[in-house]
Amino acid sequence: MEPYELDATQAAQLIAARQLSCEELARSTLAHVARREPQVKAWAHIDPAQVVRNARELDTGQGGSALHGSTWGVKDVIDTRDMPTSQNSAIYLGHRPSKDAACVAVARHSGALILGKTETAEFAAGGRLPATRNPHNVLHTPGASSSGSAAAVGSCMAQLALATQTGGSLIRPAAYNGICGFKPTHGLVSTEGAKMFAPTLDTIGWYARSVADLSLAARVFGLAADAPRRPDGVRGLRVGLCRGPNRAHIEPDGESALLTAARRLADAGAIVEELDLPEPFERMTEAHRTIMRGEGRATFLCEYLAHRPQLHRSFIDLAENADGIGHGDLLRALDHAAACRVAFDALFGPRLHLLLTPPAPGEAPLASESEGSMIFNAMWTALHVPCISIPAGTGRRGLPLGVQLVAPRGRDSELLGMAQACAEVFGD
Amino acid sequence: MEPYELDATQAAQLIAARQLSCEELARSTLAHVARREPQVKAWAHIDPAQVVRNARELDTGQGGSALHGSTWGVKDVIDTRDMPTSQNSAIYLGHRPSKDAACVAVARHSGALILGKTETAEFAAGGRLPATRNPHNVLHTPGASSSGSAAAVGSCMAQLALATQTGGSLIRPAAYNGICGFKPTHGLVSTEGAKMFAPTLDTIGWYARSVADLSLAARVFGLAADAPRRPDGVRGLRVGLCRGPNRAHIEPDGESALLTAARRLADAGAIVEELDLPEPFERMTEAHRTIMRGEGRATFLCEYLAHRPQLHRSFIDLAENADGIGHGDLLRALDHAAACRVAFDALFGPRLHLLLTPPAPGEAPLASESEGSMIFNAMWTALHVPCISIPAGTGRRGLPLGVQLVAPRGRDSELLGMAQACAEVFGD
């Protein structure tokens, strides 16, 4: 096994035992990037010489952190002090931020080796699409705006990658690229230094090749301080099988992955029951859209006024409020989402521990047709709940499928623990 | 009258008529700064040569905007591309951001002449206090973290100034400095590029010497598109005189200002009635504190990890969660605030148009004793409602007093219109 194939948890053990240096891991990864990047196109910026220099510094510096030397991609809407942050926008092409975004600073302080910036949709919102292709089949989309981060991890060009979700940009690409993705509870990871789109929705999260690596990163962000490991695996776990208000959009492959996961959980001793959400949740997809576009109006005013000719039409529409979303519409949507958050959390307790739900309709569509739909993500984003996507087999076209696990707000640590147990069952 | 004494509305008319140049206004203002700054200490950074250069550019450039040539201070937690943004923190001393914060870019695009950066509490939060003194009596505090912006406007060193409010940092200093302050509905002005403290509370607003100037700026931020002028002044306006849950903290001077304002409104034909808020609002001050400190924990993690020795003890306490605020506590406070927002807006309609309430307990305390209390601001911040402070006479020590006007969320434009009518009545 080459070093680049190790996940961060495995590599950390070897690095701590001085059986692997950060530089060796970096060089192995860079050699793999040189092979894979021409097809996958995950990177907006990567400077191998800089990576090796930083890896050497990590080797001479103090270790101790469990992330020491781990290799990271950073979505190119997140500021980095030593690399450009272009946001896939003509306005900010080659822009050099003066400091790291908060999440980058936290990762770096914990020993992360930032390899480079990963491709994104323009401002992580729309407009210009990323150049990235799905590493499992380059004719297919890697997903939405976090494509570069997901494809980098999915093709073993990075162990971890920072990403963002405002609609479905984090969880859907995780499923499409056959990796693990974690969207924490909204507000628990600072978004400072990441491009804003709709602050009520914008959430920083990360990708990894294992749930253990998701937890490793969660710990440095203060989200898995106690990361409880379930002694009995999934035995006794009460799982709600929840297709949600948009169930009609589940494709046969997605349905099959969901049912297989449910069956494996039940076989391993979990109590799986179908769960329907009450009526107010039917309106959450629309509320999400109103919040996203209503808040986007204020967010893109600056670029609209100062750089209009370099802005994709979709942002001009946002700033000009082409949808005609009034302040009252936005406030009603915000209030509806707030009320549903309380109602959602109240579903949980001794009789329900987590939801099992689709992360996407099915396999990744052809890149020529679509980048996929956020329909199985929008509601959870607006509910602020922690979500994890984990791999769950492949579909008819041989592309990865995933399932999504959802817990109530603030239960990030417990969700990571339950996801670890579930992943062990699915991995059979 | 010297040009620096004009408000932005007056100056704009002269500039548009070519009876005043931006450079003349800038030079007059700079001469006044040279006289007043040694006592007031409002500026963290001001470079007169740069100001004159930028004013000349405005004179040669296209006019047309109503803010063209207006003079602005920018609170030093808000990024500026051509001036340092030190945040009154040893960590960021002399830091040069690579781009303007969104609100600065919007103001600049609208012709604002940024004079310099104004003094702030460390990270607009606490820790190191600003050096600023109250321009009406330098032995007294100018207020909280937006002190520099408020004192700059209050001493005629700027016509307008950008500020922020997370607790009471915008409205209270407006009252203490005898000026107008506007905190818009949360979320309607992008906070991108301003230091985050508690994103659910952080709000960008501005100071001016007249309500007309507040509206002028509101228009460029898309908040006063229709800025309705009340044809009958305050006649028929239904005003709730609301001392709020912390009424016991109102000082005699503050009470007197409130009653005088209420009497003048009634004399001019407004219908003023006492209004008590129901029980849930009694818990809003505590909910605000829980949100501020709970969210601050994530926000300052980055500085805590990477720059701990340069951080004031109060931020270490925040990041280490010295208060022991759990995720559950934070979520309960967020949900309580969300529910109160709905209940608050529902109070308004044909029988209630706005609230009249104190912006601070009374006159500015001695700087040696206190920077004042946010007790009459915290609830409104967490309710996300638009607030305006306008001058309302002086107290026993000859220091300015103010009153605060509050409207439901999203009614910023109407509030500005009502505040204009109220200010005309108070100004008698």
How would a textbook summarize the main sheet of chain A?
Answer: 11 strands, mixed
The greatest inter-chain interface is formed by:
A-B, 50 and 49 residues
Distance between the termini of chain A: 21 Å
User: Helical element count of chain A?
Assistant: 14
Number of strand elements of chain A: 11
Radius of gyration of chain A: 20 Å
What's the multimeric state?
Answer: homodimer
Structural class of chain A: alpha/beta
Mean pLDDT of chain A: 96
Give the topology string of chain A: H per helix, E per strand: HHEHEHEHEHEEHEHEHHHHEHEEH
Keywords (chains A, B): Ligase, Transferase
GO molecular function (chains A, B): ligase activity; transferase activity
Protein name (chains A, B): Glutamyl-tRNA(Gln) amidotransferase subunit A
InterPro entries (chains A, B): Amidase, Amidase_dom, AS_sf
Write the layout of secondary structure elements.
Two copies of one chain form a homodimer.
Chain A: H1 8-16, H2 22-40, E1 43-46, H3 48-60, E2 71-75, H4 102-109, E3 113-118, H5 147-154, E4 160-165, H6 171-176, E5 180-183, E6 203-208, H7 211-220, E7 238-241, H8 252-267, E8 271-274, H9 284-299, H10 301-307, H11 313-319, H12 327-346, E9 354-357, H13 378-383, E10 387-394, E11 400-406, H14 412-426
Parallel strand pairs in A: 2-3, 2-4, 7-8, 7-9
Antiparallel strand pairs in A: 1-3, 4-6, 5-6, 5-10, 9-11, 10-11
Helix pairs in contact in A: 2-3, 7-14, 9-12
Describe the structure.
The structure is a homodimer. Chain A has helices at about 10-15, 20-40, 50-60, 100-110, 145-155, 170-175, 210-220, 250-265, 285-300, 300-305, 315-320, 325-345, 380-385, 410-425; strands spanning about 45, 70-75, 115-120, 160-165, 180-185, 205-210, 240, 270-275, 355, 385-395, 400-405. With about 425 residues, the first copy, chain A, is α/β, with parallel strands linked by helices. Chain A has an eleven-stranded mixed beta sheet, sandwiched between helices. In chain A, helix 2 packs antiparallel against helix 3 (about 50-60). The longest helix of chain A has 20 residues, at about 325-345. The radius of gyration of chain A is 20 Å and the shape is globular. In chain A, about 65% of the residues are buried. At the A-B interface, helix 4, helix 9, helix 10 and helix 12 of A face helix 4, helix 9, helix 10 and helix 12 of B.
